[in-house]
Structure formats: structure tokens, C-alpha cells
Amino acid sequence: MVSLIKLAIVALNTVVLAPTVAAVATFDERLSYRVSQLWVSINLLACGVRVHVQRLATLDPRRAYVFMSNHMSQYDVLAVVAALEEFQLRWVAKKELTRIPVFGWALKHAGHIIIDRSSHEQAIASLRAARTKMEDGISVMIFPEGTRGTAGKPLLPFKKGGFMLALETGFPIVPLAIRGSGRILPRGSLAPASGDIEVVVGPPIPVAGLDRDELMRRVRDFLSSYVDDAHPRTGDELAAQPV
Length: 243
What we know:
Layout: H1 2-25, H2 29-47, E1 49-55, E2 66-69, H3 75-83, E3 89-94, H4 103-109, E4 113-115, H5 120-135, E5 139-142, H6 161-169, E6 173-179, H7 181-184, E7 195-201, H8 212-226, H9 235-239
């Protein structure tokens, strides 16, 4: 019964706010993103999910970054939005996500970067189009694995597009390690559990002087050192961490 109530609240929240996000984006894309943050906050509260943030370096919200994280759950999106609340984020998302009723329509019309993986040329063009947004101080968020993995297992192979974007634009990469989301909403599940998600925000990685393979190695090394869910921490332990 509790799960059904959670799903009902999330569905209602989406039906109401997703069209609002798309409508507001027609005249103010930045304000539209703030509305989407409200959608995230309501969903997290309704489902009893708490996001704890540990930052290992100071970030400037007026600058643009290429954020990259591991991906185990649909709740990773909500966790990242909550963890980087002062930033304007645009997601690099596969075209298939735009087919999700209501949510997909808002995703498509709110200024996010949609990638058609069936067309290499279009995918490259979409990533390059992100440069204009980044020069305006908007950061880009990418899951380099390209799809959800499984908690407790090694990271999936990385896609190269996000790293090429960082190299072409010169903006630094910031790795994010997400822990616990796979227990909140594992792949294949529709009913989110209550609990804690931890987001560890790493220091920026400057791209100057590095090649694609070295950037991929550094991001993978950072994520691999944090994403082990074998010994999850309690909510009290997470709350004691610096924010």
C-alpha cells in the first residue's frame, strides 16, 4: 500500500510539473530548470529518500563543468539534481527517454541535449551544440556508462562522447560517485524504497594536456574508489559528513 501511495504521488507530481517545465522553458530555460528542481524535491520527500553530499573540492556555480557519474538507478538523476542544487544542469540523454509519457516530452522541450545513438553524425552534432550552453555558464551532466549498471558490480565500459565534449570545449570534468541509489530503486523495479543516497563530488579534472584515454582512466579510477556498495553507511554516518 505504501509503495502504491508513493507511486501515485510521483505520478501526480510528474503530470502537474512536467508540462509546466516544458511551458516555462519556451520563455525562460533557467527558470524551467528551477521548476524541475521542485519536481525532484517533491519526489524525494514523498518517497522518504534523503540525499547526503560530500564535496572534496570547492566548485564555482558560475562556471560550467562536465559532470560525470556512475549510474545504477533512475534515482541517480534526482540525487544529482539535489546534490548540485546551485547549478544549472542540462542532461545528455538518449533519444529513447523522450518516448516516456509526460516526462519524456518535458525532457525534450526543456533544453536538454538529446542524443540519437543510431546516427554518429547527429550524436556528435548534439554534443557540440552543448558548447553554446556551457559558454553561457550551464553545466552538462553525463552518465559515461550510457545505461544503468548493477550495484556491487564493476563499472560498465565508458562511452567516449562526453570526454570528447570536454576536450573540445576545454571545460573541466567533475566526477560524481553515487552510492545507495541501487537499493532505493534497483533496475527493473517500479516501487522506490525509502533510504539514503550518498553523492561524493570529486575535484575538477582539467582537460588541458590530457588525452581522451587518460581522462577516462581518471574518471573511472575516482568512481571505482567510491561506488562499492558492499558496506553501505547508515543515515547517521552520512549526515555526519561535510556538505
